[in-house]
Amino acid sequence: MSNEIKAVEKMDKDKIKRAVRDILEAIGEDPDREGLVDTPKRIANMFEEIFAGLHQDPREHLQIFFQEENHEEMVIVKDISFYSVCEHHLVPFFGKAHVAYIPKGGKLTGLSKLARVVETAARRPQLQERIAKTVADSIVEVLDPYGVVVILEAEHMCMTMRGIKKPGSKTITSAVRGIFEKDVAARAEAMSLINIK
Fold this sequence. Notes:
elongated, GTP Cyclohydrolase I, domain 2, alpha+beta, 8 helices, 7 strands
């Protein structure tokens, strides 16, 4: 059974629909009016999709490929788009992730697998800092590289739509592991390559 199917089975869509209907009534809306009558169902279907990562383990995407050449040079996948939902206000935040690692002993993974790890970590009620940590720790646990750097930059709708109301502001977080923690030159190289446009 696939992880997506398992995640779907754990969603109680009827409970979500009842809760959305209650919220609509609580804010003074009529959940039976034409424009809202199907909203609880639409929200339940949307939650099933955007929170699919809740019951998945990001590490499952990291298949190891051994290279005979014993490649031990930096690998970077940058500008990985991600979308998530702030766990404090349940509104979206979205941006780009940049992932760099230095393989050890020729243990590589597919480039798309790094994007899948980011996506799985993001598809749940989340904190941006936790996404970076989860991605970095998953790569360390499965690939055991010399080092990992994960940088996320995102716009948070909880700062754009409400509160301070500052559209366009970006939050940048990072998680640094292994050689990148201690070796200033290695960290500087990763950062300069990530910042190349």
